[in-house]
Fold this protein.
Amino acid sequence: MIVSVTRSGGFAGLTKQGELDTSGQPDADRLEAAVRELGAKDLGTGRPQPDRYMYRLEVRDAADDVTQHTVAEQDVDATTAWLLDRILS
């Protein structure tokens, strides 16, 4: 599974991108579980707020199916925050 994240917005309006291929990662099971949970979560309104981040995620699985998610900073829970930090660092 390949997960790409683009973070935009924030106080300075900077953009940061990251991509992670979960295969071969020591925590691959946890990463993939966190990605699968995104589809089942109610991540809020997704509406941007001033000086807050917006995250756009693109998930490509082994069958090359692509899923996209948009998450506003104010709607990020602990598991999603861990996932985003893991991909962007």
